[in-house]
Amino acid sequence: xxxxxxxxxxxxxxxxxxxxxxxxxxxxxxxxxxxxxxxxxxxxxxxxxxxxxxxxxxxxxxxxxxxxxxxxxxxxxxxxxxxxxxxxxxxxxxxxxxxxxxxxxxxxxxxxxxxxxxxxxxxxxxxxxxxxxxxxxxxxxxxxxxxxxxxxxxxxxxxxxxxxxxxxxxxxxxxxxxxxxxxxxxxxxxxxxxxxxxxxxxxxxxxxxxxxxxxxxxxxxxxxxxxxxxxxxxxxxxxxxxxxxxxxxxxxxxxxxx
Length: 258
Known about the structure:
The protein is of the alpha/beta class. The protein contains 8 helices and 15 strands. The chain has helices spanning 4-16, 31-40, 56-80, 128-135, 158-168, 199-207, 215-227, 241-245, and strands spanning 26-28, 47-48, 51-52, 85-89, 96-100, 103-107, 110-114, 120-125, 139-143, 145-147, 153-155, 174-178, 196-198, 233-237, 254-257.
C-alpha cells in the first residue's frame, strides 16, 4: 500500500472480481503509515512479540491514520475507478466488538502477563451492516479498529480482524495479501512454496518453527476464518496484480483447508 502505482493496479484487479459476480469486502491495516505518524509526533513504536504496544495517546493517532488516511484513500481510489465504496471501521454499527488482549511471556520457566495497552481481541462480529452494504451494491472497506460494550476502542491485528470478518460473512474465500508468494517450507527459498495445506499440516509447520514471525497471525487468521464459517482461505502475493487476477488458480498462492 506504500506504492501508489502498485496499490491502484491491485485495487483494479480486486475490483474486476465484482464483474465476475463476487461480492467483495476489503479489510486493511496500515503499519507503515502508523509508524510514520507516531514518528512525527515523537511517540515510540514498541513491539512485544510482534504486537504493537498501544498507549491511549498512540491509539488516537492509530485510529486517525487507519480511518482518516488509509481507509479514506482506499475508498477514494475505488470510487475513482467507477465503483462505490463505503469506508467504516469495526466500531461502526457495532460490527466488531472487542476486549483487551491478554498476552503472556515465558520468564524463568513461568508465564507472566504483559500489558499491550489498547490492543484488542475480537469478541464477536455482527455482519449486518456489511451485508446491507453488499446488498445495495457497495464495496465495504473496513479498518481494523473495534470497541467494547463501553465504547472503548482497541487496535486489532489486521490479519486477525479480517479473518473474523470472513468467518462471520461465511465467505467463499478469505484472501490474505502479503509480500511473498505464499507459505514457504524454507523462508529463504521462494521456490519452496506450499500450494495446499490442511490445518494438521499447519500445526506441524508451527511446531518445527517453519511458520514464524509475521506469518503466524496470517495463518491463524486463516484458521479462524474457516473455523467461523469461511469455506477456504488463501495467502497470495499482493504486490503482484497477476497473482490477484489468478486467485482461483491452483498455481497461485497457498490454499488452506480444514
